[in-house]
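Quarterly update, task 2.4: zinc ion-bound model.
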Amino acid sequence: MIKKWTFHRALTTNGWADDLTLFTDDGLIIEPSEDYDKSETVKGIALPPFQNAHSHAFQYAMAGLAENPGANPNDSFWTWRNSMYSIAQSVGPDELEDIAALLYHEMLRNGYSSVAEFQYLHKDPSGKLYEDIGEMSLRLISAAKRVGIAMTLVPILYQNGGFNSPPAGSQSRFTLTREEYSDLLSRVEKEIDIKVAIGFHSLRAVDIETIASICSADKWEAIHIHIAEQLQEVNDCISATGLRPLHFLNEHVNLDKRWNLVHATHLDRKEMDILLQSSANVVLCPSTEGNLGDGVFPIREYNARKGRWCIGTDSHIGLNPFEELRLLDYGSRLVTHKRISFSDTSYEDLALALYNNGKAAMNQTSGFLTQGTMLETMVIDSSHPLLETDHLISTLIYHFDPSVVLGMIVNGAVSYT
Ligand code: ZN
């Protein structure tokens, strides 16, 4: 079906446009057409939707439950991880699908059109493979399709409990052999309407030789890994390898734009240079990183030096993308005593870069509102007087919440309104 769309205002790759008209054929943006079957006028402002490049859906079930004042004076990432492991132990296939469906609906409501699911909950609670090795992954795919969010599944290889140590009992649902991981990838690649990327839980959880070997295959367009999130993890890496995490990874793999480094919070000068030269993408999750006391990523310097980055919501303690950007910037302002961490660019360029970097991280087609892509946009309610401004995107980021999101169009269909 050919459809004509008119948006009252839109940000395009060529700047702002009033009364933008687009034509789609079954959701795919095509050349303007004299003949069309249906016409729809969208009252609002079309903006690049947010891309959620890092999610562990099951952790949504514990949002807020690990905040217990006075329960443990030494509460840390590592004690939080014990709570997370006990939640992981209680989630079966049905629960996972229900949690994910609720979460993905909330993501759409908050302005995310796509999610990359960093999935390592592979086995049953006793540590046995399900009859279908993809059981848990398929439930996430099913949840995404039910809700109408675009998905990239990132099956995760997890093998060790730490550098040179076997997995603990609480990690038994996560671990796969290399052969099982291969089988899982083959299984999920058969699914239609989703994309697949590969991933490794962390340097502590997978041997570097295995990482290097799997990544040497050219077929993988996007590779994900948690790295340098916690200081203890950095120190453990130095003890085990003699090198800091990003430096160690770069010594063993061809670090390039296919790589998506989740957190990368703790970088020294050399690692910052390595990262920028590699064109790898960093996936920042400010609300989770703040919640877990990870540290502050040096966004001011990284942005000024044209580093690639996008955002994710990781544990889902926060789901508001405007807040993610605000937290990222304010964390930097508090540390550097300077304002505006994104000062090298316009906020329009920032919105488009976040979209394109997020799409690349998800191995999905980028190019906002361009011919040959599926129509996908976030529609903002333009009725608030504060939004009658030439500084629309900064006003949204620093002042508003997602209640201004009127609706979402994903894959050419209205997913949330
Ligand atoms: Zn994570």
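Highlight for this quarter: The first helix runs from residue 77 to 90.
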